[in-house]
C-alpha cells in the first residue's frame, strides 16, 4: 500500500472543516448525527481522506451507540490501532493505515454477538460509502 502524505494546508484544502476536525485533529462527531449511523446500504466503506477501503457492509451491525459500528475491518492492514489515553480513559484509536487519518475507536468484549466481539466505533464523517452495483 502506498502511503499518502500531505501537509496541513493540503488536507484543509481537500477536506471540509468538520472532516478536517475529525480526520486530522482526532475529533468526534456528535452521536446519532452521522450520515452512516443507521444506513443498511450494501457496499464498501472507504476513508474519506484518501479512499482506502476500510470496512464492508457485511461487517456493519446495529450497536445503538450513535456511530456506525463494524466488527472487523475489510483487511487488518487497512487500519492501524494505537493506544489512546486521552480524556482520562484507556482506549484503542483506529486510524487509516494509508493516510494516518483518525477514524474512531475499537472496543472489545462488550458482549455484542458478533464473530469477533469487537466494535469498531467509527465517525461517519471519516467514511465514504461506495454502494455495491
Automatic annotation (TrEMBL):
Domain MsrB per the UniProt entry, residue ranges: 8-132
Keyword line: Metal-binding, Oxidoreductase, Zinc
Gene Ontology molecular function: metal ion binding; peptide-methionine (R)-S-oxide reductase activity
InterPro entries: Met_Sox_Rdtase_MsrB, Met_Sox_Rdtase_MsrB_dom, Mss4-like_sf
Annotated GO CC locations: cytoplasm
UniProt EC number: 1.8.4.12
Catalysed transformations (reactions): L-methionyl-[protein] + [thioredoxin]-disulfide + H2O = L-methionyl-(R)-S-oxide-[protein] + [thioredoxin]-dithiol
Any one GO biological process: protein repair
Cofactor requirements of the protein: Zn(2+)
Transmembrane segments: none
Entry-linked Pfam families: SelR (PF01641)
Xref: Gene3D superfamilies: Peptide methionine sulfoxide reductase (2.170.150.20)
Catalytic class of the enzyme: oxidoreductase
Domain of life where this protein originates: Bacteria
Record-linked PANTHER family: METHIONINE SULFOXIDE REDUCTASE (PTHR10173), METHIONINE-R-SULFOXIDE REDUCTASE B1 (PTHR10173:SF52)
Protein name as catalogued: peptide-methionine (R)-S-oxide reductase
UniProt organism field: Thermomonospora umbrina
Lineage: Bacteria, Bacillati, Actinomycetota, Actinomycetes, Streptosporangiales
Amino acid at each position: 500500500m502506498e502511503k499518502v502524505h500531505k501537509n496541513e494546508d493540503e488536507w484543509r484544502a481537500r477536506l471540509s472543516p468538520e472532516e478536517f476536525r475529525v480526520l486530522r485533529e482526532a475529533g468526534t462527531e456528535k452521536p446519532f448525527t452521522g450520515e452512516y449511523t443507521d444506513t443498511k446500504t450494501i457496499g464498501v466503506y472507504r476513508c474519506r481522506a484518501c479512499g482506502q477501503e476500510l470496512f464492508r457492509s457485511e461487517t456493519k451491525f446495529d450497536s445503538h451507540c450513535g456511530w456506525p459500528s463494524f466488527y472487523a475491518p475489510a483487511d487488518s492492514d487497512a487500519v492501524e490501532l494505537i493506544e489512546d489515553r486521552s480524556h482520562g480513559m484507556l482506549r484503542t484509536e483506529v486510524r487509516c493505515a494509508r493516510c494516518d487519518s483518525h477514524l474512531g475507536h475499537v472496543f472489545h468484549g462488550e458482549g455484542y454477538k458478533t464473530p469477533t466481539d469487537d466494535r469498531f466505533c467509527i465517525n461517519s464523517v471519516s467514511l465514504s460509502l461506495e454502494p455495491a452495483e
